[in-house]
Predict the structure.
Amino acid sequence: MIRLVTRLWIATALLAVGCAGPRATVGLRDVVAQELGRDLGDLPNHRCTIGAHRGSSVAYRENTLPALLAAETDPRYAFIEFDVQYTADRHIVVFHDQRLFRLYGRLRSVGDITFAELSAATDGEILLFRDLMEQLHRKPLNIEIKSQGDPEEDARLIDEVVAVVRSHGRERDVMISSISTEAIRYVKQAYPAFPTGRILWITSSTYLHVDPLTNHLYETFAETGADYLMLHVANLRNLKALLADKPRNKTIMFWDFDDRMVLVHRDPGDRLWGTSRWADLAAGLWYQITP
């Protein structure tokens, strides 16, 4: 009876503070089993929060309005990630790749054509960032800046993205991420209130699991000042060292080329951006008492 009352209290608290519900939560061992197909033995089963990578990108074409709106309402996702970049005429669009080929069979680059040409080539499927922000209201957002290698252009893109975010009053629940070290440094300098994520795919420590390489990964990451280390799931092979060496004020996330991103709650400070300590505490208690 006490257990039931406790669960009801926590469920009420989760709703009151707007925290991710239990369907957006999974144990770390389950993540490893799904991604690597193996059991890492004595691995602590830390709570993990699930987000939608490029929206609900398995059920729908990635980064499109149907994918992103589905992620907004699907309780399996606690947050939503999408990518932004410029067209030739400086419209900010929601698209991941540099070229259209993988999704639309065309060789043209997004940055080399106008938004009108892009719309014609994709039957109007690619979104303007400002229009998307009119549609998403409920969940924290992870906006990835698709760097084209020009720091000045990246800074201009970040400035415009931040302006749109602020116009919607979303400063508290938007994280800005990028593969570009310069882009992340610019965000930390110009907009220090925004949480940031540094994206990495394969590093020397991914397959060579020795402490000096793991330490070097964290040293390189620390130079950017980013708050979230966003690693490809191949790095789960080095998970024990990553968790053991993780700074307490930084949070690890994992991503793959599917619809899921995973935020690992290793320490009390590992919270989903845009959520309060109370919300995170309630979610943690729910995870502990729910089979």
The longest strand covers residues 79-86. The CA atoms of residues 59 and 67 lie 7 Å apart. Residues 1-19+275-291 form one domain. The radius of gyration is 19 Å.
